[in-house]
Amino acid sequence: MAQRLTATVALVTGASSGIGEATALALAAEGAQVAVVARRRDRLEDLAARIGDAGGRALVIEADVTERQQAEGAVATTVEQLGRLDTVVNNAGVMLLGPVVDAPVEEWERMLSLNVQGLMYVAHAALPHLLQAAADGPREVADLINVSSVAGRVARNGSAVYNATKHAVGAFSEGLRQEVTQRHVRVSLIEPGAVDTELPDHNRPAIREHLQQRFADVERLRSEDIADAIAYVVTRARHVAINELLVRPTEQQ
Ligand code: NDP
């Protein structure tokens, strides 16, 4: 049975585009007030206006979550302005593919600092508030959603470091799940297949071209498909924890 998110507060990282943007809209539609976090303020303002037009409330927080103080500040501002924190969607991520040999190591640093370290900063800052919400919040349960990938399950030639970051998200999530689940903080891993977003655009041109060819015959998921999955996970009754969800396009092998 579904439980709506009325009177709860959610924080979504990477909400200025793609999966994060769709997730913020979906959680707002379930009744949550939503703090939307990313670096592109104009995109966040536009999203907040749309949430407001639909009768919801969003708080814009411009932050680079790879900077520990900004990640912690995003959580603190949410609690100061919206009063509590029940749901966190750790979604911000970057995927820079290519062979390990001769790779620009700066790309690895970007992936590790966002996909792993930034996600951990946000989780660490949010956990005391999530534990509090689980103890005395309207739903007596709280949710930390970590967005991994099919790449967090299956490693591929040409994707080794992205695979490493997403496998790290899986390991972190499972260890943390065991730590906090008896206190009713549910830690869930979402593993999308190919979704039609800006994610591939940050790659070097030859890699972008390769990705386009690889998925040319696949009808990719829409961001809303993953937002639906996340909304499903966080609206379960208190005794139901969806630990892991793998969602691929039907045509993806
Ligand atoms: P997008 O590129 O559309 O979104 C990435 C988001 O992360 C943007 O909102 C971006 O906003 C934000 N972001 C990037 N760097 C930072 C930073 N330093 N601090 C705060 N926010 C940041 O991609 P997706 O929506 O596709 O990706 C979302 C997640 O889904 C990622 O973790 C990705 O790995 C995962 N995923 C995506 C798949 C796909 O096929 N698209 C498949 C599997 C997993 P801004 O630039 O404004 O900061």
Short structural description:
With 253 residues, this protein is an alpha/beta fold.
What does this protein look like?
With 253 residues, this protein is of the alpha/beta class. It has a single domain, classed as Rossmann fold. Helices cover 45% and strands 15% of the residues. The chain has seven helices and seven strands. It has helices spanning 18-29, 41-53, 68-82, 105-136, 160-180, 205-214, 223-234; strands at 9-13, 33-38, 58-62, 87-90, 142-147, 185-192, 244-247. Strands 3-2-1-4-5-6-7 form a seven-stranded parallel sheet, with helices on both faces. Strand 4, helix 4 and strand 5 (142-147) form a beta-alpha-beta unit. The radius of gyration is 17 Å and the shape is globular. The protein binds NADPH dihydro-nicotinamide-adenine-dinucleotide phosphate (NDP). NADPH dihydro-nicotinamide-adenine-dinucleotide phosphate (NDP) binds next to helix 1.
| CATH second-level architecture | 3-Layer(aba) Sandwich
Helical stretch tally: 7
- Average of per-residue pLDDT values: 97
Q: Name the CATH class.
A: Alpha Beta
Overall shape: it is globular
Radius of gyration, in angstroms, nearest whole number? 17 Å
Q: Low-confidence spans: pLDDT under 50, at least 5 residues?
A: none
The sequence of SSEs as H and E is: EHEHEHEHEHEHHE
User: Which class do the helix and strand fractions yield?
Assistant: alpha/beta
CATH superfamily: NAD(P)-binding Rossmann-like Domain
Total beta strand runs: 7
CATH overall fold name: Rossmann fold
Binned strand content = 15-25%
Strand order of the largest sheet: 3-2-1-4-5-6-7
Bound molecules: NADPH dihydro-nicotinamide-adenine-dinucleotide phosphate
Relative helix content: 40-55%
| Domain module tally | 1
The CA-CA distance between the termini, in Å, is: 32 Å
Query: Could you give a short account of the major beta sheet?
Result: 7 strands, parallel
